[in-house]
Amino acid sequence: MRKKIPSMILATLIVFGVFGVFGQPALAAPEEDEEASVGLSGFLSEMEIEFEDYLALMASIADTGGQPHFLEENKQRYEAYRLENPDVPFDKVIAYVNANIDTGFYIDIQEVPNLDDVSLLVNKNFSLPPDWIPDDFVNTGGGHMMREEASEHFNLMRDAMIEDGLKVYVIITYRSYSAQRNTHGNAVSQHGSALADRNWARAGHSEHQTGLAADILHKSFEKSMHNAKYQNTKEFEWLTENAYNYGFILRYPDEYKDLHGYVFEPWHWRYVGVDVATAMHNEGIALFEEFYGRYLAPGVLDKAREFILEQRSPPETEEEEEIAEDTPDVEVIEEPPPDEDVGQTAATAEPVIPDSPDPPEPVREDPVMRGFGVTFFVPLVCIALGSIVVIRKRHN
Questions:
Q1: Quick one: 154 and 264 in the same domain?
Q2: Fewer CB within 10 Å, N- or C-terminus of the chain?
Q3: Torsion-angle region of 211 (φ positive above 0: left; ψ -120 to 50: alpha; else: beta)
Q4: Residues 107, 257, 144, 136: is their CA dihedral positive or negative?
Q5: Domain end (from 253, 269, 296)
Q6: Domain assignment of residue 392, given as a range
């Protein structure tokens, strides 16, 4: 029994040591967080411009024959979509592709890049995180919750409609991710997935989760929203003519159902902000995906940012450019004047020592190497101890 104990210790140490050296997975360096898109509001704040100025800038580029929303990285997609849709004007082709309409529904799904913006795009190509809930909810009446800015403008719009003798029944505003999942799941079980996808959004793809949308009718909800024939009412006519003044748009127009992917929903109105809604009205753009692809997509905002920064950089004159070309890149150190208080001459004055360069940055320990040391040191110690046991056993 006494002879078996050292052998067991020896085997344990050696096996642990070998496994520690060769069996440990490599430690990866921590990944840096990608810079999130700032969205329209962040872009305007960063550039210190108004939305009207941004639209004017894009219009001036278009007037020169350019396509300000053309993104080089999407060039091949533009060409492919244009071949499949030869009757669509090229400026719309660019906008549609920038909004990922060309990828098909529920295929190449991306997460909404700018959750805080009221002009965010949620559809069958852009989804909201399951656990995301707006942090500025307020009760817009009757227990219906909306984001604060949207609620304020919705109440103004509802009051104006009531003053004009119209009726407003709020059917639904905010709906959570889990509630939308149940709604869509029930529709699939009753009608099949194809019909369910045309009439109900999948979880994460509903605008109701944003707290920016409202379904409204002229009477209380009964069996079907379609049975209300809301598109034939005075209320719908009023909204069509005036909703943009309050920042709301008809989100799913009938003539664009092949592009937004839903049946016509005359009751579904979405808050996008007064500036955006007014611009869509003035430019005659009825589909939000098109406007998003023209002005709001992250790549378009990045391109506009670069153009603005280039315009703000003062161009060098020809004389300055010639001087810059003839001047060698040599660092010139200016010497301070001699100390007149002690009457030092040029011969006796201490030499001027230029300022020392910035000290090198401290060497930071690489987490991968630190993990390497910890991972390999302990097993090697175990192997050494095992070897000592072998030597002593043989010596004895």
A1: yes
A2: N
A3: left
A4: positive
A5: 296
A6: 1-20+376-396
